[in-house]
Amino acid sequence: MNTPPPLGRQPVSSARPRSVLIDVAVSLCLLALFFALIQTGAYWLSKPLPEAHISHSIGALPLYAFYSVMRIGIAYLLSLVFAVGYGYIAAYNPRVEAWMIAVLDILQSIPVLSFLPGVMLAMMALIPGHQMGIEFGSIILIFTGQVWNMAFSFYSSLKSIPREMVEASRIFRYSAWQRFWQLELPFSAIGLIWNSIMSVAGGWFALIACETFPLGNLNFRLPGLGSYLQNAAFSDPIDVHGLIWGMIALILIIVATDQLIWRPLIAWSDKFKFEQVESSRRITSPILTLLQRPSAVLRLPQRAWSSMEERMYKRLSKSETCRVVQPLDSDKRRTGLLIPSLLGFFATLFVVWGGVQAYHLLHAVTWADMRLLLLSAGATYLRVNASLLIAALWTIPVGVAIGSNPRLAPILQPITQLIASVPASAFFPVMMMLMIRWGMGLGYGAVGLMLLGTQWYILFNVIAGAMSIPSDLKEAAAVYRFTRWQRWTRLILPGIFPYLVTGMVTASGGAWNASILAEYGLLGSRTYQTVGLGAQITAALNANNLSTLLLATILMAAIVVTTNRLVWRRLYRLAETRYKLEG
User: Fold this and answer.
1) Per-residue confidence in pLDDT tens, the chain, 583 aa
2) 3-state secondary structure at position 48
3) Is 532 buried (19+), middle (13-18) or exposed (0-12) by CB count in 10 A?
4) How far apart are CA 307 and CA 192, in angstroms?
5) Distance of CA 478 to the CA centre of its chain
6) C-alpha distances out from residue 290 to 162, 176, 260, Å
7) What does the CA dihedral 403, 505, 431, 237 come to, rounded to 10 degrees?
């Protein structure tokens, strides 16, 4: 009788080659990242070169793509930290919540080009004599195109946590760190990841404007994929060959990002769905499966983090807040009056100083300029709402189908991620050429161009909302034989409502931002422009007319904030009360 080998020895021969391959692949990736950081540091510490020469050679594309990816990546990390911190403070501090959300409304309504002069001059003054100042300015501008929808998503998720889960964290005496790491962050993971995909797409949208821009007498041009595409699109004649190769490089980067980062994260976040019955169909990712296999390189940081986490939890368990079960009302932070008073005092001083400076700058604006800006604001307002309506009509059913249908999701989800990640500004020259050839005016064509920059905010939030609907509720709807109308009105729309409101708010801000490129564009040596607030902002920036630029920006922010207060804020309150998922 043959004795079987010990169980502990069986997987060694089959697991070892795979483990070695994973270790080698991870080590090579870390080595490549190390050399990338060295290359980036050497470039940033070099002498400033505001107007870099952009080569039309295809051989220059890998280096340009590398610089752009580094800017996008750093800006995303900054956006993630800011969104989590800002959303957490706003959600749990009632005294400052209304003010913080108002500030977020204002900031997300200001176009990237309006931030450009002040940010770039400030960064060049803070870090003189190095390319780092210009690069940091560009990264912060990309940051302003990424962060707002992530902050709204995290804030909305924290306000939607079921009450019984918060009570359970109190009963088990979780510290603030344990509750954040084991309840709040996992609950918001699905929405945060899908909004991160949209944020990176928004970063690519802002990249072209942030790598090539005028400022006073200088035309700043940074080496990157955005400046390469813009140089190819706006050269006379148009460099169609370079434009095609630039788009191919951009698509390859987007596909690699989707497969290596977003797809594994989406599959990983599927385990954080709030449900009592496990779904029969799970999202899978070959990369995530590969990383979850035994690997010495990956096991070391996991063990180090586990030991640190265990020590930290033991120390926290001995604190006063963890020894006593805290009442649920204590979730509202008790802050003293000194720090808020000091912050309010300095904020008031800053507002007064900014108001005085703005008054002196706006003194040069005439009534004719004011009438033109008001007319332009009305035209852009109509285009923004038209683009939101068109986007909602197709993104809601498609997003629900992708997020809830196991057969459609593997096919349509990667396609939508790929198309959405391609920056809308890269399509603008092509669409402008088609509109000119078809005889369509830019006034109507700007709606289509805005649609390219807004529809994905709604689609990705609807997908996240549909994926977060618990499987037990879907099975209950099937058991009770809901009709299609009942499923939509009693399950789907209430389930996705908080995510839909977040998507509409950020899409509205995205549409206003897209107007600066949709209503004013260069094609070869010709300039195409229509009546609109975005066109006025772009023209004022190109002419270095700071008074018109400031007034147009204030007008745009006022319209967006007023709309948010009258419409979107009330829908947020409805989502937090009536459509909150809890027992």
Assistant:
1) 455 444 444 444 444 555 566 666 666 776 777 777 777 777 777 777 767 778 878 888 888 888 889 889 999 999 999 999 999 988 888 888 878 887 887 777 777 766 777 777 777 778 877 778 888 888 888 888 788 889 988 998 888 888 888 888 888 878 788 888 888 998 888 889 888 888 887 788 777 777 877 666 667 788 888 888 877 776 767 777 888 888 888 888 888 888 888 888 888 887 777 665 555 566 667 777 766 665 655 566 666 666 666 666 666 555 555 555 555 554 444 444 555 566 666 667 766 776 666 666 677 777 888 888 889 889 899 999 999 999 999 999 998 988 887 677 667 776 776 777 666 666 666 676 676 677 666 777 788 878 877 888 899 889 888 888 887 888 888 888 888 898 898 888 888 888 898 888 888 877 887 787 778 766 656 677 788 888 888 888 777 777 888 888 888 888 888 888 888 888 878 877 777 665 5
2) coil
3) buried
4) 27
5) 35
6) 34, 33, 11
7) -120
* Distance between CA atoms of residues 461 and 273, nearest Å: 15
Judged by DSSP in three states, 33 sits in: helix
The helix, strand and coil proportions of the chain, stated in percent and rounded to the nearest 5, come to 80, 5, 20
Count the neighbouring beta carbons within 10 Å of the beta carbon of residue 101. 21
**What token pair was written down for 31?**
């080595």
What CA–CA distance (Å, rounded) separates 562 from 558? 6
Max CA distance (Å), the chain: 102
Q: Mind giving me the DSSP string for 509-567?
A: HHHHHHHHHHSEEEETTEEEE-SSHHHHHHHHHHTT-HHHHHHHHHHHHHHHHHHIIII
Radius of gyration of the chain (CA): 26
How is residue 200 written in tokens?
């990176």
Q: How far apart are CA 134 and CA 224, in angstroms?
A: 13
- Per DSSP, the three-state class of 442 is helix
**SS3 state at 135:** helix
DSSP SS3 for 61: helix
DSSP 406: T
**d(Cα 533, Cα 530) in Å, to the nearest integer?**
9
Report the distance separating Cα 543 and Cα 535, nearest Å.
12
* 422: DSSP letter: S
CA–CA dist 109, 258 (Å, integer): 28
Rounded Cα–Cα distance for residues 508 and 527 (Å): 26
Separation CA 182–CA 155 (nearest Å): 17
Is the Cβ–Cβ distance between 92 and 158 less than 8 Å?
yes
Q: Which residue has the tokens 């007064």?
A: 352
Q: What is the pTM of this model?
A: 0.72
The total number of residues shown for the chain amounts to 583
Q: Give the residue among 151, 529, 444, 173 at the shortest CA–CA distance from 321.
A: 173
